[in-house]
Amino acid sequence: MAHVFSMINLKGGVTKTTTTVALAETFAAEMQKRVLVIDLDPQTNATTMLIGEDRWEELNDKDQTLARLFKDALDPEHKKFDFNATLQRRVSNVKAARTVDLLPSSLDLIDVQDRLATISSGKFYAVHPIELLWKAVKSHLDDYDIVIVDCPPNLGIITLNGLRISQSFIIPTIPDILSTYGIPQIIRRVSEFSEEIGEPIEPLGIIISKYQANSTVHNNTLQQLRQSKKLPPLFDTIIPQANQFAAAAEHAEYSTIKQKWGYGGLAERFSALAQEILGKLE
Q1: Cys-Cys link to 175, which of 151, 195, 218, 262 (CB 3.0-4.6 A)?
Q2: What contacts 85, CB < 8 A, 6 or more positions away?
Q3: What is this structure's pTM?
Q4: Domain membership of residue 117 as a residue range
Q5: What is the pLDDT of residues 109-120, one digit of tens each?
Q6: CATH number of the domain residue 259 falls in
Q7: CA–CA gap between residue 31 and residue 26 (Å, rounded)
């Protein structure tokens, strides 16, 4: 049975997507896991990191992204979503991480999300806007060991689709005021959603990223997060601020995880984080 978890934060720029890709590649390269990345974020950053912008443009022009799935709900008479045509196999640009597959995103999701709330539930409530992704992928999930859903920075219908197929979720954050402000809202809303659908969606924890040891704000916020009894626990592994984040976003070929994520300790941090997550999943 696949372990499915969502990555979510209401604040952008917290390395949510970068961490998603790094974990997917680490699970594949170091733990020999079959990994599926589902990119629901209309910014498409996970998609372009994994397959490059040129390939993404080809798929987008052919309507072979997840936007097509949601467009079908808006125009049920002309359904075109094809899972196998949309699924991109062996996408990582790290040679050692060839068991990563991708369901790519599209900028079109921005427009689609606002319209999804208006769709009819269909005969006998056969269609529900939060069930669209679930219906499309449920028969394929067990082809994988781990499925990571990169959610948009909001709690809208697209994000709820990601949470609907997830057993758990992770919140990556920079330890500052703006990045952590929405965490209680995420916890509350996911808990309410979990009760509404009658399925458990457990918080796995909070990942501290872009940490600067010489920052008073970071250290104070980190202490507050650790002491809070209302929030999920922090993962022990902390991801420091690093120039490699920007370099790794470029779609170039790498032989190993260390080559992509640098030899200064960042690759080792992601490895330790992946081990922590796997321990919680199993």
Answers
A1: 218
A2: 64
A3: 0.94
A4: 3-281
A5: 998 888 887 776
A6: 3.40.50.300
A7: 7
